[in-house]
Amino acid sequence: MADLLAGVREGRSGTLVLVGEPGTGKTSLLDQVAAGCPDVHTVRIAGVESEMRLGFAALHRLLRPWLPHIDELPAPQRDALHTAFGRLAGVAPDRYLAGMAALTLLADAAAPQPLLCAVDDAQWLDRESAEVLAFVARRLHAEAIGLVFATRPHGQALVDGLPALTVTGLPDDDAESLLSTSISGHLDGAVAARIVAGTGGNPLALIELAHALTAEQLTGITPLPSPLPVGTFLETHFLRQVGRLPAETRTLLLLVSATPPEDPSLLWRAAGHLGIAAAMADPALTAGILTPALDFRHPLIRSAVYRGADPADRRLAHAALAAVCDPVLDRDRHAWHRAEATIGLDEQVAAELDRAADRARARGGHAERAAFLSRAADLSPDPRARAARLVAAAHAHLVLGDPASVGPMLDRAEHGLDQPVPRAIARQTRAIAEMYTGRFTGAATILLDAAGSIAAVDAGLARTMMFDALQAVLFTDDRDATLTLPALARAVQDSPASTRTDDFSYGYADLFLYGYTTRIAVGYRPAVPLMRAALAALSSDGDSLAEECLPLAVISMFAAEDVWDEDGGRRVWRRLEKHDRDNGALANLRTTLVAGATWELRAGRFDAAAALQDELDELSDVVGQPHRGGIQRIELLAWSGREAETRAVAAAGLGFDDYVQNSLAVLEISLGRHHEALALLLPAFDRDKPGVATRSLHEIVEAGVRGGDDPAAKAALTRMEERAQASGTPWALGLLARCRALMADDEQAEDLYRESADLLARTSIVTEQARTHLLFGEWLRRRRRRADARAELRTAYEMFTRMGAAAFAERARVELLATGERARRRDEQATRDLTPQEKQVASLAAAGATNGEIAARLFLSTSTVEYHLTKVFRKLAITSRRRLATVLAAQRAAR
């Protein structure tokens, strides 16, 4: 804690999670920190159990001092917070965009004076607030902000992974000293030892026992109570104290426990509604249960009072709070308190919760929506309405990334699902929950059956379900024996919901569905215009983006590679990336970055591809998602010639079989191991899965020709002839010309190689341009045309070296040596010691982005961007941004 505060005073940021059982001193530590830091502005809140279901409630209380400054934030962040707090009707913000807004607001607040935010009882935070604060904690760096959580063990999983300090009981000597100083009379030594041992040195238990035990017990004349009030037994101890107070005081304390400490007016309005005078607080003040600020002297008393109250009394308190909440300005709190005050069935209250759930969804409060809908289901007299609310609640849990809660809710809904569409939606939700957890096997069958059950009733929804099924099968790499791609494609083509037409006015989802299934069930040529239309629709600003199944980056990447449409694929990537960054959709951005890295790799910009991969790794930490063992880097590793790393990643066995095999094949070809490459590629050729199989056709031709397997090469070339001509893009035709050259007679090969080089030069696929020059140079050298071969091989060597394709560059260098030209082996120059994030910041600054633009793009504060730039300037020995572009370009040229 001292180190954290010292860093905050020096302009650095830090986070600490205090974890301990009730009474171990977490709150006292927060008290000491707040009292001992007059030079640090401290803001403190505590989680309130009764408000756990109100999305963003705790965040609103934490940010209350700076709410007037929200309008000064960048527009997307401003709108995100206004929407989250119900001040603005708009598109529900992604929780990470709300987190970025909170980070910017806090960073601005810390500019004039270091800031400490202390969150007690974090286990009672609403989920939306916890997610935002966890995001802020993971992005803090150089803002002079300290963020401290106090929570019980396993109390708030969302802060897992943050720096933590376990707060335990006091050592025996300190515990006995605390006990002695808390007692005015005599304390028997043996009794003290038994108390310390029985409480585990729990400070709160020691203090409470010092006041609760009689003189006879303290001196050992009468036995100690059993069990001693420690841990959860402390709540019983506090309840006994509360139970000795007058009835109206107890009711007042229950209202205090259900009311945020920062809203005393709500408390006194509710008390007035029940006819409780302010003087009824005096007995609690005298007993030391309440502080003069009318808050509990310890947070544990709050939870003890609320959880230990008689259910009827708790309903009475909620009814009073509902009665005094403004039903217009505070509609959601009014609805929740009214629901908590209701026992039995009440459709009117359930309908009010339904409307509150809709508002929660509009604000991005998906946990709040799930809670409201679940409670509305409990209150619903009609089985169908109850089932519909449970299914909607299950879907809200999906959006939250909480698939484990979906099954139980759908099980509860089963009885009321007696209509085709609601039943199909429930099955769709269950299948997607399975996919979220990585269990794709069987999900596609459920989705296809659900679509079939409503195809004649709701064709649009049926097509959505079939699109989900398509994604599931594409993702299984044929591991799902229950439904193959051809079977799915035929079912979609034959479905009454598939009113196929050549009118491409469909949305991108339908076009992808028809494009993929046409490609599989009908043929490649008729699928090409559908795939292109789908990519065009997805890249258009007119279509909204909804990613509730697999990320669209995967589907679009497969489609673009299948029809060799680099322009359409790049436009989609740029649109998805902009959408994800603008909306703070970090979970989807991670997959979009993989697609972006692939396009950058194709363009020979390995540094840019690596930067996107570095950002992906960093974002995985931010969103608390595990890394996939570097699987997303395997293609870049293979092209870079990093053999040991490539094989290590492949050996991890993380699925994505065709993708891994293709990457390994590229490595094998670069090393001249054509037999090995062909063995890796042929299984995908046989399956002919869209995207993966087409991208490897030219690899099979090369590996077959060089490895002496003419039948394999001819089969791949035959397929290549049909598809490349149907595609008609320079990328496709350039690869086709090269494949023809590899298998042509001498008099035709040269013209075909030159045709390939000319066509690929019209694309941004630099990796394939270089490979054509390499193969052409090798062909020329074998025909003893050394001068011509040197020109091609030198071009290939320079291109491969520039991009960082080490194994291909070495292959070109060896060929150059055979022509009589000595090419110096170039070791990659060690770059200056920039961290991945410093490289990102430096590259964006060199491109002319302002600090604010860099911060928004990388989900950082401007203070952190300034901090990184300062370190970049020092490491590169420059003093201004103007020199950045020159220095970075010089480094790339040197490599």
UniProtKB/TrEMBL annotation:
It holds the Pfam family GerE. Residues 827-892 form the HTH luxR-type domain. PROSITE patterns: HTH_LUXR_2. GO terms for biological process: regulation of DNA-templated transcription. One of its GO terms (molecular function) is DNA binding. Keywords: ATP-binding, Nucleotide-binding. One of its GO terms (cellular component) is cytoplasm. It comes from the Bacteria. InterPro entries: AAA_16, P-loop_NTPase, Sig_transdc_resp-reg_C-effctor, TPR-like_helical_dom_sf, Tscrpt_reg_LuxR_C, WH-like_DNA-bd_sf. CDD domains: LuxR_C_like. This is Transcriptional regulator. It comes from Actinoplanes awajinensis subsp. mycoplanecinus. The lineage of its organism: Bacteria, Bacillati, Actinomycetota, Actinomycetes, Micromonosporales.
